Amino acid sequence: MRRKLAIVLAAGMTAGLLAGCGSGESAGTKDTAEAASSQKGTQAQTESGEKVNIEFWHCMGSSNGELIQEIVDSFNASQDEVVVKAVHQGSYTDAGTKMQAALAAGEAPVLAQMEIGMLGIFADADQLVDLQKFVDAEGYDIGDFMPGLLDASYYNDALVALPHSRSVPVLYYNKDRFKEAGLDENKPPVTWDELKEDSGKLTVEGTYGYSCPLDQWYYMSLVMNAGGTIFNEQANGIGFDGESGTKPLYLWKEMIEDGTMHVPSGQDYNSSEACRNAFAGGTAAMVMQSSAQLKGLEKTCEFQVGVGAIPKDTTLSYPAGGSNLLMFKGHTEEEEAAGWEFLKFMTDTENALKWANGTGYLPTRQSCMESDTFKKMIEEDPNLQIIVDQVQYSTYKTPFIPQYQEAKEIFANEIQKCILEDNYTPEQAVESMKDRVAKLF
């Protein structure tokens, strides 16, 4: 490990010198000597035996948080040069807010797990380290990451993240309730019409056939399944101005009105938790949730859990969700090098498989899919294969623009207003989203 850190640090210094020359600036003898002296000093400091301490902020609670800590502990025990301290910062939203405050105060951690939509905010503000310098320095095989997941790690051609906790929205259903209702337990609804029909058969004695958080991610899943996109091709306005935006809202309003859809209380992550509780408690027979909830639901529910694709209107298309691992600027080269070693460990094939198997997040590497370990995981839990199969429908590349987070808040606000207020129509909601998002640009 000590030698690896020294090599990475030396490569970083060399890359900096080459970049200076390439920009047209002259690297004179004095500058070169000073750089060499600085490089030598940094290596000597790394080899002095002192441990490099860095912080890693994450957003995983409960059993997922315990698994994060387990992987961090494994890294710390695997070598004696770097100590990583994992710090839980709450939800994605909480962590994003805290990170902005930490950056303003000059107290950001070296590494953090951040929701993919926040990448544009930090990258646009030039707060993220371009990891390509480490990749180039040691010939690291970045191509082993799943292409669709790796795409969401770049900003203006700079590699500013590595894929980690990536997910897709899926439909979970209660197989026992399906059998009781005379439905095929291995055939969840495929279309919106089938969703409505099955929900009607599953709604009995104070229970509901279906539940879904009034959340922008699940709404956007239905928007894309109706032929829309989150943003237009120019990335300066919404991409669902029309029926692709109104039809999902009409679907929900109709199902709520006929008593087949349960509306979970709360907002954002609280609403998702309420939805999962309704499913586990038998209040709802089907729910739209993240694939990352697979293992938690299988452990919690006292019935057999089935998994299916999100029912479609005209096509199958999803916005991939989850988070990436980022390195923030403002730290020493030694700390950056230490952070890179941990990033590699956290995302290697072994730990990517451990993370996927313990949570339900997607395996991020192609080598994961080819491994005997993954094949065994699929044999033990076929639901995981169904989730992995959905990746092919998550091809939409969300533009990483600074306005994305504000746009998501607008979407969520308008969705809830439309569903909860009888006199606010889907057309009014979509028109308002269009106008309010346009003003962000």
UniProtKB/TrEMBL annotation:
One of its GO terms (cellular component) is ATP-binding cassette (ABC) transporter complex, substrate-binding subunit-containing. InterPro entries: SBP. Pfam families: SBP_bac_8. Keywords: Signal, Transport. Residues 1-19 form the signal peptide. It comes from the Bacteria. GO terms for biological process: maltodextrin transmembrane transport; maltose transport. GO terms for molecular function: maltose binding. Residues 35-47 have a biased composition (Polar residues). Residues 28-48 are annotated as: Disordered. Belongs to the bacterial solute-binding protein 1 family. This is Sn-glycerol 3-phosphate ABC transporter substrate-binding protein. It comes from [Clostridium] clostridioforme 90A6.
